[in-house]
Amino acid sequence: MSAAPKRRPFDAGSAAYLALNLLLVAFLLAPIAIVVVFALNPTPYISFPPVGVSLRWFQKFFAGSDFMNALALSLWVALCVLVLSVVIGGACALALARGRLPGRTFLTAFFMSPLMLPAILTGLALFQSYLLAGIGRPVWGLIMAHTLVAVPYVLRTTLAVLHNFDHRIEEAAAALGASPTRVFFEVTLPLIRPGVFAGGVFAFIVSFDQFPVSLFLVMPKNETLPVVLFNYMKFDLDGAIAAASMVSILLALSVVLALERLIGLKAYVKL
Amino acid sequence: MISRRSMLRTGASLAAAATVGTPAISHAQTKTLKITTWGGKWGDIMKATVLPVFEKEFKCTVSADQAFPFMPKLQASAKNDPLYDVFHTNSNEQWSALTEGLVMDKFTTKEVPNVADVHPWSVSDKIVGVAIFTSAIGLGYRTDKGLTPPKSWKDLADPKLAGARGGYLIPVNSLGQCHLMMLGKVYGKGLQDLDAAYKALEQLKPIKLVDFTGQMEKMLLSGEVSEGVIHDSGVYRYEGQNQPVDFASPSEGVMALEQVLNVPPGSKVKELAYAYIDYMLRPDVQKLLAEGVWYSPANKKVKLDAKYDAKLLTRPEKVATLIQPDWKWYNARKDDIDARVTKILKG
């Protein structure tokens, strides 16, 4: 007869670690749970426990032309920002990591500076600059502003990949006769791709949820979703806000999952 | 609440009136009038009816900004080319804007002819520009909690309401600022007796505080607060929806929450801006908006339907209960007041 398996002794440290992690997960997910309850509850105010399940707030959200126009504009701006910040941030990271640029430390700090400034000040400063330049508040101005605050994310993630990059692979490709362009597209880019696209995902989400910078730069009838929601909240604080938040969360999640399927962000996570 | 059908019907009559109107400005060229305006139900009526009729009558386009904050945007734009041609906001911000030279002081009947027909509160010495509507700030309460309907501002301090009374973050909300001044009047020597107001504010703790009036509405509806400071339209708008809430006008008077229009002196389309203000004071436009959002109209000639007339400030005896705060005085002390009330209500 075999002996009963020995019970592992109680480890207080592991238990505390597990409890802390569970607490953190709860802390992160609790606001989302509240949003879900509010979005599905038919009452026009937050009540707990919920009195039922209804899709009336989702119907209101999707039937509202203001909401739909804002959602479409936010998606369009976020997609443009994703592309622009990937191109600009990726190129900057390559230049900073690979080029022999004088004042490289200063330049890195300079490109990262939009993250140091309060975003509301960035928005106000750009608003004033646009007015002084006489260009008003066009959508492309909004895209530029979002790109400004999104580039540091791509820059940081790409620099992290380049930090661990083995240059000998590029040298081997060049030694075997590949042109610099071919080396870039067939060796360098595939290797830094996870970092660039992880930054791109951040850029998309930063732009899609951007409120303080957009606040000053949106035009009447051309407002992004966070701005429309903020203004809506001042007059009609009902479940449509929660429904819109749910849609935003699902959209952001979809983008992350789509990019994971397309380019495999796990590769970046493993770095 | 006004129905979609009646809104369309009124819109049609506004359009008909527009064809026989006598606009004071040239119709020769298409201009753009840049205005600020509210969202919510107000914004819906403006977009659906009021603005299209104005655009048609004056052959212009109106660019209506509903995205707060209006004041910093106006401040950031050049004075000789302001971002807005008509600045719609509450009285406290209008006074700040006047101090900085961003808006005009008053309008004459030559500029805005309908000013001749307004209630005195609309153009009083407490107003910069012209107030086109007002709400009454009083007490909203639940009717299902066994509470005696409040008769005085002092009723909010009833110990039974501890933790179930509602107020505002005073530094960011003009209703909260009005309430503070009212505490000075009720417990001290007058609206400007801040020491008495601070002492009374201390006695209101514990109190639930919100940023926006919309949040106060929802707290009352959900029962999270049983009694709170709110404007009449924030309660009356739920009439007919079977909600256990009502509004009380305290015996000491109600505070005015005016909707004020003004024109930045540097506007390039000043005549059009005056025409817009005059249009907003027309009896038919006033009636449509007053009944749509439960605001008391400024024009004395407006005849509201009975159910609105019974509750809004249209008759002289009701108008007499309206107290207008001195925002110039308040704004000059705002930083000190903010610091003090934050210390009192912290936590």
Q: What is the CATH topology assignment of the largest domain in chain B?
A: D-Maltodextrin-Binding Protein, domain 2
**What's the order of the H and E elements of chain B?**
HEHEHEHEEHHEHEHEEHHEHHEH
Largest interface: A-B, 27 and 27 residues
CATH superfamily of the largest domain in chain B: Periplasmic binding protein-like II
- The CATH superfamily of the largest domain in chain A appears as MetI-like
The overall strand count of chain A is: 0
The proportion of strand residues of chain A reads under 5%
Oligomer: heterodimer
Alpha plus pi helix count of chain B: 13
Q: Name the shape of chain B in a single word.
A: globular
Can you tell me the CATH architecture of the largest domain in chain A? Orthogonal Bundle
By helix and strand content of chain B, what is the structural category? alpha/beta
CATH topology descriptor of the largest domain in chain A: MetI-like fold
Q: How much is the radius of gyration of chain B in Å?
A: 20 Å
What proportion of the residues of chain B is helical, as a percent range?
40-55%
* N-end to C-end Cα span of chain A: 48 Å
Shape of chain A: globular
Instruction: Give the rounded overall mean pLDDT of chain A.
Output: 88
> Major sheet of chain A: size, sense and barrel closure?
none
DSSP strand tally of chain B: 11
DSSP summary: helix tally of chain A: 12
Short account of what is shown:
The complex is a heterodimer of chains A (271) and B (347). With 271 residues, chain A is mainly alpha-helical.
Commentary on this structure:
The complex is a heterodimer of chains A (271) and B (347). Chain A is mainly α and 271 residues long. Chain A has two domains: 13-54; 64-269, Orthogonal Bundle (MetI-like fold), CATH 1.10.3720.10. Helix content of chain A is 77%, strand content 0%. Chain A has twelve helices and no strands. Chain A has helices spanning 12-40, 56-63, 65-98, 104-116, 119-133, 139-163, 167-175, 180-208, 212-217, 225-235, 239-263, 266-269. In chain A, α3 (65-98) runs antiparallel to α8 (180-208). Chain A is globular, with a radius of gyration of 24 Å. In chain A, 32% of the residues are buried. Chain B is an alpha/beta fold and 347 residues long. Chain B has two domains: 4-134 and 257-321, Periplasmic binding protein-like II (D-Maltodextrin-Binding Protein, domain 2, 3-Layer(aba) Sandwich), CATH 3.40.190; 137-256 and 325-345, Periplasmic binding protein-like II (D-Maltodextrin-Binding Protein, domain 2, 3-Layer(aba) Sandwich). Chain B has 13 helices and eleven strands. Chain B has helices spanning 4-20, 40-58, 70-76, 91-99, 174-187, 194-203, 213-222, 232-236, 270-280, 283-293, 306-311, 316-319, 327-345, and strands at 31-36, 60-65, 87-90, 130-142, 165-168, 208-210, 227-231, 245-248, 254-262, 296-297, 322-323. In chain B, the strands form two sheets. In chain B, strands 3, 4, 5, 6, 7, 8, 9, 10 and 11 form a nine-stranded mixed sheet that branches. Chain B has a two-stranded parallel ribbon with strand order 1-2. In chain B, α1 packs parallel to α2 (40-58) and α1 runs antiparallel to α10. Chain B is globular. Residues 18-24 of chain B have low confidence and may be disordered. Chains A and B meet through α5 and α10 of A and α2, β2, α3 and α7 of B.
